[in-house]
Amino acid sequence: MSISKPYLLFLGDVKDELAAKTAHGVLDWRPEWCLGQITLPGCKAHTSLPEMSLTEASEAGAKTMVIGCVNAGGVLPDHWIATIVDALNNGLDIAAGLHIQLGSIPAIAEAAAKNNRKLHDLRFTDFTFPTGKGEKRSGKRLLTVGTDCSVGKKYSAIALQRGLAERKISSDFCATGQTGILIAERGIAIDSVISDFISGAAEYISPATKDDHWDVIEGQGSLLHPSFAGVSLGLLHGSQPDAFVVCHEPTRSTMRGVSTPIPSIQEIIDLNIQFGRLTNPDIRCVGLAINTMMLSENHAKNLIEELSEEHKLPATDPVRFGTDPIIDHICAEFKLV
Q: What is the mean pLDDT of residues 284-289?
């Protein structure tokens, strides 16, 4: 995927920072691609980038406005359309990870055509995926899974892949969501694939490779989330992981967007092993990625130590404290140099 840079990040009028996770993700992992942000009245999220009008962004050299916010169902609110049209009129392309194609909205399609601008629909592909086969394939795969959605599966996967690469271990990051695709410029938005073909799509993005190569696959949802468990299960079966890392945000009492209580880390470990054995009998948990951004440093370190001892697994916050404990364990478990 080739999207013109630099980016202007659109945060809309979202009600919290987590709803702007696409903007934050792109900025955190690709800061050199980001120029500024634009918000609507009432927005409760902000990045470290300067606020810009569309005219200012265009004059500063922005090439694409990225819809950097998400909501349940990936819908496009009607009151965002005017800003998107104005961006096209100011010479910017648009990139969005919505469940609706930008070009299906007449005002946006007309403005794109009039200004000869591109519309990038990150969740859509022309590729037809086969059904999953569950057959053993060469290479190694690591999947990040979660006790909830939006707990750090993408960040952990990118950090772990970079940690492997730093040790000269052949590896790739496999994006399965719109933010990951923006960061990697490749991948499949797995939640937009028809349910019968989710496992096949997961097999496609993590194909047979050399025996010493690792695909690190971005997880989605959670096996116990009422809204997203189906996507999580299909991704687990298709990615056929040899190893998985459980991602957890310790300050939550209920899953995001629903009233369901957060499951325990052990429940998630047990379920992923139980269901993952269908396509990889040797699946194992190799670590815990604890999202401690809401905790003080001392509290975070103490909690990580407690969870590591409780589960007899390496634990860390991959962004805050690095990935070495988990990478060390992977190297020992799989006898990597």
A: 98
pLDDT digits (tens, 9 = 90+) for 161-173: 999 999 999 999 9
Strands 284-290 and 315-316: parallel
Same fold, 7-121 and 140-333: yes
Of 282, 281, 286, give the one whose Cα is nearest residue 247.
286
Residues 183, 186, 191, 196, Cα dihedral to 10°: -160
Determine the CATH number of domain 7-121.
3.40.50.720
Look up the pTM and report it: 0.91
In the chain, % helix, strand, coil (3-state, to 5) comes to 40, 15, 45
Both structure tokens of 105 = 């909205």
Burial of residue 81, with CB atoms counted within 10 A of its CB: 0-12 exposed, 13-18 middle, 19 or more buried:
middle
Domain locations along the chain: 7-121, 140-333
Q: How many Å apart are CA 263 and CA 147, to the nearest integer?
A: 6
CATH classification for the domain delimited by 140-333, as one of 3.30.450.20, 3.10.20.30, 3.30.360.10, 3.40.50.300: 3.40.50.300
Token representation of residue 202: 């997961």
Question: Residues with Cβ < 8 Å from 332, sequence gap 6 or more?
Answer: none
Q: Write the Ramachandran bin of 328: left for phi over 0, alpha for psi from -120 to 50, otherwise beta.
A: alpha
Return the closest-CA partner of residue 65 out of 48, 89, 99, 45.
89
CA atoms in the 13 A half-sphere facing the CB of 278: 16
The enclosing H or E element of 10 equals strand 7-12
CA distance 84 to 67: 9
Over residues 267-281, the pLDDT tens digits come to 999 999 999 999 999
Q: Which of 201, 169, 154 is nearest to 330 (CA)?
A: 169
Burial (Cβ within 10 Å: 0-12, 13-18, ≥19) of residue 159? buried
pLDDT at 74: 76
Tell me which residue of 291, 7, 27 sits closest to 151, measured CA to CA: 291
Structure tokens at 116: 């000869």
